[in-house]
Specification:
Beta-carbonic Anhydrase, Chain A; 5 helices; binds zinc ion; alpha/beta
Length: about 170
């Protein structure tokens, strides 16, 4: 039997599909840009950042992390024609709340030796300073040989309490 979450997805999708009229959209993003942002449940990228269906790639991960997103960004740019990146982190991010050693000790406690082994040496990439983390990720992307100089990169902070988006760098 489907879980409540699964049942909800089925029910809501049936409603969505019954009114769906966007099947004609092309694969490459119409506005040729990619957004990297956090997986945080309080962020609605389409609404908060003004992204219409078919406009842009939205790459989400813990922290809106540029290194994590690199594989997708290269595919976005080299195979699907995007030429601009918006890197958007946010206030109150979970990545501000722990250090690598904290994450590794939770892993050891909850997942046991095998889990610990599999994740040993993993950098969870938490950050203590939000603005600096945005600046560092923008620097990383601009310095990366995988991201050509022709790609425009900007760094932003989204405030989960006010809904406001601020261009930082
Ligand atoms: Zn976050």
């Amino acid at each position: 039997m489907a879980s409540q979450i699964q049942a909800n997805a089925q029910k809501k999708n049936a409603e969505y599909a019954s009114n769906f009229k966007e099947g004609h959209l092309a694969l490459p993003p119409a506005k040729k840009y990619a957004v990297v942002t956090c997986m945080d449940a309080r962020i609605d990228p389409a609404a908060a950042y003004g992204i219409n269906l078919g406009d842009a790639h939205v790459i989400r991960n813990a922290g809106g992390n540029a290194r994590d997103a690199l594989r997708s960004l290269v595919i976005s740019e080299q195979l699907l024609g995007t030429n601009e990146i918006l890197l958007i982190k946010h206030t109150g991010c979970g990545m501000l709340t722990f250090k690598n050693e904290d994450a590794h000790s939770v892993v050891a406690k909850n997942l046991g030796a095998a889990g610990q082994q599999e994740l040993s040496g993993l950098d969870f990439q938490p950050f203590p300073d939000l603005d600096k983390a945005v600046e560092d990720d923008v620097k990383y992307l601009k310095a990366s040989k995988a991201i050509p100089d022709s790609i425009t990169v900007s760094g932003w902070v989204y405030d989960v309490e006010t809904g406001k988006l601020k261009l930082l760098v």
